């Protein structure tokens, strides 16, 4: 359904051939599909703590499922050396205390999810649904740092040695130094932090720092470097991975006349640009064919997000497998996955007209041979000599040749099989191997 979206879920079973999808409609009736959706539960509602209780959890209805998916994501892939942390939005316009309003995002209303993903591919290692301010009175200024600590806790416990990239919402001097002390390098953009150098504070107060295009200023404090670089506008970074004085490179910028000119650029800027797009890559793959749709249950959007996350992660593992020489596109991967999960199942009686076009085959055998006999071979074909003609009082349909369009009746039946048959040729055909 994510590959072939329709305005209403009922249209997949529509009698109008413009909307109807035979491959979906053949699996089960619409009533059965809706009944299954009605009864989907991911936790025991009777054990839900009351609101205000110390162990109350806003995500209680879906918590076991979230933990299961998080665990599966971490167990099925090894941590890469370069990862990024960012936020993703799951569209939701209903009533929920978890709903956030982000006016600058493409998805303005919905659930906010913190994600730690691989920088190169977008594979999601861990995610956490934002439920609002915590009881420990965490301020919004310190929220970003706490998110980074939570998402990197398992990396620290495993002795991870690599690089983490994140945006200015999460960055501060304290979190950069904290990660460095734990053996993790980090790079992030930064704006409006109290612990920034005096150089940046003067710039913020209206005394514009005059820098030429490509010029940079930098300061260090312990193991954290602050880099200010002039691009089309001033941009600032915090890093513990690249020294601003030693690590420099060049980048091309287009001029007004269309030509490109190389300018000196800190390596911090280039590496941040390369490493920061992990979550955006995942979001792009997820939103291309997402299975999400409207529901009366507030947590269904999060459930659909987890389904899409599993599909995208599986696709990324499949494409990065060296044994796969000609990998499928995500579209054909999802189609192949869906057909594999369905595996020819149908809850109704399958007819030739309901089959997809590519499965239709012309029957090679005669109509009589295709007909279901209804009597076991052990009775019908054994001891043929005891099967004799027997007259009956009423006309009954011949078990061998009678059809809906060609009604044939007989007053003769087999004395052993007790089925009505025409004397010639049905009686002999019925008791012979067909």
From TrEMBL:
Name listed for the protein in its UniProt record: PiggyBac transposable element-derived protein domain-containing protein
Stretches assigned to the PiggyBac transposable element-derived protein domain: 1-315
């Amino acid at each position: 359904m994510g590959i072939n979206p329709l305005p209403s879920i009922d249209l997949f079973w529509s009698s109008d051939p413009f909307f109807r999808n035979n491959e979906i409609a053949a699996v089960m009736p619409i009533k059965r599909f809706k009944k299954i959706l009605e009864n989907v539960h991911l936790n025991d509602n009777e054990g839900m703590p009351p609101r205000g209780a110390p162990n109350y959890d806003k995500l209680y209805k879906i918590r076991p499922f979230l933990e299961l998916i998080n665990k599966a994501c971490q167990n099925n892939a090894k941590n890469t050396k370069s990862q990024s942390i960012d936020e993703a939005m799951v569209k939701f316009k209903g009533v929920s205390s978890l709903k956030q309003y982000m006016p600058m995002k493409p998805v303005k209303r919905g659930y906010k999810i913190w994600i730690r993903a691989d920088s190169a591919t977008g594979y999601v290692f861990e995610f956490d649904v934002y439920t609002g301010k915590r009881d420990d009175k965490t301020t919004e200024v310190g929220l970003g740092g706490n998110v980074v600590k939570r998402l990197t806790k398992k990396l620290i416990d495993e002795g991870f040695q690599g690089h983490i990239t994140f945006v200015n919402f999460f960055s501060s001097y304290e979190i950069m130094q904290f990660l460095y002390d734990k053996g993790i390098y980090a790079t992030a953009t930064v704006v409006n932090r109290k612990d920034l150098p005096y150089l940046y504070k003067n710039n913020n107060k209206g005394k514009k720092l005059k820098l030429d295009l490509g010029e940079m200023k930098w300061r260090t404090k312990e193991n954290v470097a602050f880099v200010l670089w002039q691009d089309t506008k001033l941009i600032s970074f915090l890093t513990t991975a690249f020294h601003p004085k030693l690590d420099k490179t060049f980048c091309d910028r287009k001029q007004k006349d269309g030509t490109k000119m190389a300018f000196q650029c800190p390596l911090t800027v280039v590496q941040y640009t390369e490493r920061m797009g992990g979550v955006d890559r995942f979001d792009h793959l997820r939103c291309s064919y997402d299975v999400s749709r409207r529901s009366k249950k507030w947590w269904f959007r999060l459930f659909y997000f987890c389904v899409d996350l599993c599909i995208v992660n599986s696709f990324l593992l499949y494409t990065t497998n060296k044994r796969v020489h000609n990998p499928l596109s995500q579209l054909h991967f999802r189609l192949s996955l869906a057909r594999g999960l369905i595996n020819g199942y149908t809850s109704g009686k399958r007819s030739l007209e309901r089959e997809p076009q590519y499965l239709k085959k012309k029957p090679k055998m005669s109509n009589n041979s295709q007909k279901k006999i209804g009597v076991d071979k052990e009775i019908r074909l054994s001891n043929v000599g005891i099967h004799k003609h027997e007259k009956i009082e009423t006309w009954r349909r011949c078990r061998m040749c009678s059809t809906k369009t060609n009604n044939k009746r007989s007053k003769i039946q087999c004395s052993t099989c007790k089925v009505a048959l025409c004397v010639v040729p049905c009686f002999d055909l019925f008791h012979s191997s067909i």
